[in-house]
Amino acid sequence: MLSGKSAIVTGSTSGIGLGIARGLAASGANVMLNGFGDSGEIEAIREDLANGHNVKVLYSGANMADENEIAGMIAGAEDAFGGVDILVNNAGIQYVAPIEEFPVEKWNAILAINLSSAFHTTRLAVPGMKKRSWGRIVNIASAHALVASPFKSAYVAAKHGIAGLTKTAALELAEHGITVNAVCPGYVMTPLVEKQIPEQAKARGITEQQVISDVLLAAQPTKRFVTVEELAALVNFLCTDHARSITGTALPVDGGWTAH
Ligand code: NAD
Fold first, then answer.
1. Using CA positions, which residue lies closest to atom 21 of ligand 1?
2. 237 and 217 share a domain?
């Protein structure tokens, strides 16, 4: 379905990004993985995807908080693949604390990784997409791009920013065969969510079990976590030609959360 296309998925050594990278490789796209983690485990994932789907799979350890490393990653993918057709901005971190206690360095890191990195990857990948008159940019935002929750000031600000960047880029690129969309997941049980359960328990003065039932799943009318596979399937669809009229959207995949 996507054979002949090449993709970068930022933050794809874990969780949602890894699921999206798997989905794109299974559809025949070459993929550049990115993110942090154990080098042996990352190499095993890289080999598994390349051999399992007969596509080129590369890895960049570029830090999404560093615009020079981002530029190196995009240039490396363009050299190795001959172009970046699909850009999935997924890398993200979370930190939960009341605003008056929110560490300034956490605010700066969340804005850099969750928002500014998507500006840098987009500005650098767009010239090649324009030349080929085809491109797909998918920003993994969040239900928190549409609504807020307490104690997540930096994350909610960055994700609302991603929704704005998505709309602006979609308008600028609409006549070039390039679509730009934001996917807005509700809660998915990945390391990012597992880590915030004790932080939420501390900020709210409740138990970790209460965080799961009364905070996380309370927001989701389906009362179940969204899965990585559900998100990968949507991203795959957005990358097909059938989705060429879908652009500038913020698509909720949140079990009904933002219908409240
Ligand atoms: P995760 O922690 O499992 O994965 C995050 C990935 O980003 C990892 O590969 C990590 O190495 C990478 N990463 C972190 N900092 C990086 C940096 N500075 N440079 C490069 N890579 C970096 O998290 P996840 O839950 O899979 O989250 C992925 C995206 O989905 C994030 O943008 C997150 O905000 C969003 N999201 C997650 C949920 C959820 O419930 N899990 C819900 C909505 C949106």
1. 35
2. no
